[in-house]
Amino acid sequence: MNPTQNRRALITGANRGIGFAIAQGLIAKGYEVIITSRSLAKAQQSAQKLQSKVIPIELDVSDERSINQALETLRLQIDRLDVLINNAGVYPDEGVNILTISRELLDLTINANTFGPIRMVQAFLPLLEKSPDARVINLSSGYGAIEDLSADVPSYCLSKLALNGATIMLAQALQAKNIVINAVCPGWVRTDMGGASAPRSPEQGADTAIWLATEAPRNISGKFLRDRKIISF
Ligand code: NDP
């Protein structure tokens, strides 16, 4: 029997970009995929494009009510989650730096990019605990690595630095529950966020996350990876 048969993954922000490519990759490996998007219509459109067994769900990771509603809706349809991919993210730092950025913009970015993934793990923990091989992947960025922090990309860098920290802390807390969690830098990827000049395709950007979700050794947890290799935080 195919070991990936009947496995189920939830991806945030999967209506476009790297999240959509991760969905395609997991479907190709036989996974059932829950496509979540801030807009139900966009989640449904993506589900149609994938022409496979996909559950489209509305989910805004910055909004507690939306997370709770998504969980409630899903609980009627599923009793177990094997993979959670915290992919949704924003990069709103154009034209500001660490000396000029507003509290509102800091709030917005850290809420989506850092607190969103933490709350998703908390909310979906009971479903992840039902899996014999549960894995969580946080889409981070090289901009979150200590040596690559940039004063000109203030809220994004801080949010991914803190997401990397949360990955370490969550790995500690999830170890006793036998759930592994890692952070990934996808490289610079041609998406709405990465822009047209980026060297990597969304499929290339999705590769390490898909590997971690499916076949990476389970003794890798609390780490930061790029191109299937552990890198420095
Ligand atoms: P895109 O901008 O192409 O897509 C971002 C996705 O996140 C969209 O689906 C968007 O939804 C969704 N999203 C944003 N905010 C929320 C929210 N509050 N709740 C739910 N969904 C939300 O980005 P990429 O595909 O390029 O990026 C995916 C991840 O990879 C991000 O975490 C990003 O930081 C990371 N990354 C990307 C790099 C790149 O070069 N592209 C480099 C390093 C890291 P909507 O359509 O509704 O806006």
Description:
The chain is α/β, with parallel strands linked by helices and 233 residues long. It has one domain (8-231): NAD(P)-binding Rossmann-like Domain (Rossmann fold), CATH 3.40.50.720. Helix content is 41%, strand content 15%. The protein is built from 6 helices and 8 strands, in the order E-H-E-H-E-H-E-H-E-H-E-H-E-E. It has helices spanning 17-28, 40-50, 64-75, 103-128, 154-175, 202-214; strands spanning 8-11, 32-37, 54-58, 83-86, 135-139, 180-184, 224-226, 229-231. An 8-stranded mixed sheet has the order 3-2-1-4-5-6-7-8, sandwiched between helices. Helix 1 packs across helix 6 (202-214), helix 3 (64-75) packs parallel to helix 4 (103-128) and helix 4 runs parallel beside helix 5. The longest helix is centred in the middle third of the chain and has 26 residues, at 103-128. It is globular, with a radius of gyration of 16 Å. NADPH dihydro-nicotinamide-adenine-dinucleotide phosphate (NDP) is lined by residues 12-13, 15-19, 37-39, 60-62, 87-90, 112, 139, 141, 185-186, 188-189, 191-194, 198.
Task: Note the topology.
Blueprint: E1 8-11, H1 17-28, E2 32-37, H2 40-50, E3 54-58, H3 64-75, E4 83-86, H4 103-128, E5 135-139, H5 154-175, E6 180-184, H6 202-214, E7 224-226, E8 229-231
Parallel strand pairs: 1-2, 1-4, 2-3, 4-5, 5-6, 6-7
Antiparallel strand pairs: 7-8
Helix pairs in contact: 1-6, 3-4, 4-5
Bound molecules: NADPH dihydro-nicotinamide-adenine-dinucleotide phosphate (NDP).
NADPH dihydro-nicotinamide-adenine-dinucleotide phosphate is lined by residues 12-13, 15-19, 37-39, 60-62, 87-90, 112, 139, 141, 185-186, 188-189, 191-194, 198.
